[in-house]
Amino acid sequence: MSEIIKAPRGTRDILPAESWKWEYVINTAAEVMKDFGFAQIMLPMFEHTELFSRGVGETTDIVEKEMYTFTDRGDRSITLRPEATAGVMRAALENNLCAQGAFAKLWSWGAMFRYERPQKGRYRQFYQIDAECLGIENPEADVEIIDLSIELFRRLGLKNLEVVINSVGCENCRKIYRDKLYEYFSAHKSELCESCLARLERNPLRILDCKNPECGKIADGAPDIYDSLDDDCREHFEKVRAGLERLGFKYRIDKRLVRGLDYYTKTAYEILSGDLGAQNAVAGGGRYDNLANAVGSSVKIPGVGFACGLDRVVLVMEEQACSFGKIPEPEIYVVADDEESRKHAQILTHKLRNAGVHVECDISGRSFKNQIRNASGCKLACIVKDGKFEIRSKDDSGVGIVSKILEREREKFVDIKNVLAQKSTGFVDKALEILEHERDHVTNIKNVLEKKRAGDYSDGIVKLDNLDEAFDYLSANL
Ligand code: ATP
Ligand code: MG
Question: For ligand 1, is residue 312 a contact (CB within 6 Å)?
Fold first, then answer.
């Protein structure tokens, strides 16, 4: 196949067979965000390169190796966003969202770009759902962010997850810790991988994050960060832990969890899935009290947030057979025979769609037979012929009709309850009157079922004389 019609390496199309699942995850996220009071923010997909090199950090893998950076026609260095937090902070600073002690709870979702080796769960264009709480230094904000991410996964039905947390301290603690790490790893130079030797000079903390098992073994024996934490960082960490325990969350502490971005301070955490193999992190986040200053703000704006890998979440949900809600299917298919009927069908479809009904109608000139075949997947088919409208329920079994009657009956119960609650004059009579009707419904149901048993499917077909009647019937019976 010609290269031109192949998606670039590490990118892929999310086709209709998949995209409805993504929509479900994003809609669920939007609901969770609303419940937690996070408002959506939409950000540019590219920013000035410096925002990331200074924000994410010069010594990170992202900035060193993974960014899509180019010079635009105006000679500016531009980078496709590799992550969202720096952009959210930039937007908050530019628009004064955190002026005079105000705080902002923001979320967004969209594509991120990193030049990585593509594999399952790792792409060059991937998608994240992101939530950031800016302007609050309290550990309650950390707890709320972690709670939010866990709640998202709970609502999506993900199982087999593990929450891992750590504290990476503030800048002061890290300076001390860095020296200790330098000393420790220097004594193990011969056992470190090539990248870690470079990390040793530039940022020894990054060695703790190395995926190489040899380096991992050495990192396991590295000094403990807790011994380098000052009182404030230690207390913050204790409060986050206490908050998580108060909410009943289980978590594991991993002193090697430092996250791949330099801006983290104090809390760092990840949510891991037992069903993802090597790419096992479905979300990661933490606190970043120095990010604002790192990107040039003169005021301190603390923050805490998380990003969840949408591609990986969909993968895990598929693996765990989680529900993605219902596949969107038309409720009605309008089938038309001749030219004149096609016109009626077009108007009926238009009116039903105006009324918010999911309707399909052939626009490609298919034969009547083919249209009928397409309609077979729908709950209802409306057949237009000689100016008349015939409505057939999906399998003509009458189940639809029975459930509709039962539905109405439920409403009757509400009516009876209301009447009884009013206790006004004649309320008993009214209630009895309703019950009388109800008996009719029960008789109706019995009749329908008995006819079905006798093999009579005529109740599944309703014949109507004109378009208005068809519209009224269809919109009332969905
Ligand atoms: P990893 O350790 O898997 O490389 P990371 O620490 O680089 O992850 P973050 O920057 O924390 O990732 O991004 C948050 C989430 O975004 C990750 O937990 C993951 O689910 C997702 N993610 C990161 N990089 C990719 C990618 N290249 N393709 C798909 N999802 C990704
Ligand atoms: Mg990574």
Answer: yes
CB atoms within 10 A of CB 103: 17
- Residue 53 burial (C-beta neighbours within 10 Å; 0-12, 13-18, 19+): buried
What domain count does the chain have? 2
Q: Is 128 in the pocket of ligand 1 (CB under 6 A)?
A: yes
Q: In terms of domains, do 255 and 396 share one?
A: no
pLDDT tens by residue, 20-40 = 999 999 999 999 999 999 999
Q: 112-137 pLDDT, tens per residue?
A: 999 999 999 999 999 999 999 999 99
Residue nearest to atom 22 of ligand 1 (CA): 309
Distance 472 CA to ligand 2 centre (A): 56
* Residue 313 in contact with ligand 1 by CB distance below 6 A: no
- What is 405-431 written as a DSSP string? HHHHHHHHHHHHHHHHHH--TTHHHHH
Q: Are residues 266 and 368 in the same domain?
A: no
Nearest one of 345, 351, 400, 356 to 378, comparing CA atoms = 400
**Atom 25 in ligand 1: which residue has the minimum CA distance?**
122
* Same domain as 254, residue 105: yes
Does residue 158 sit in the same domain as residue 265?
yes
How many angstroms separate the alpha carbon of residue 122 from the centre of ligand 1? 8
The pTM is what?
0.84
Provide the CATH number for the domain around residue 11.
3.30.930.10
CATH number at residue 447: 3.40.50.800
Residue nearest atom 3 of ligand 1, based on CA coordinates: 279
> 439 and 297 in one domain?
no
Domain that holds residue 407: 332-476
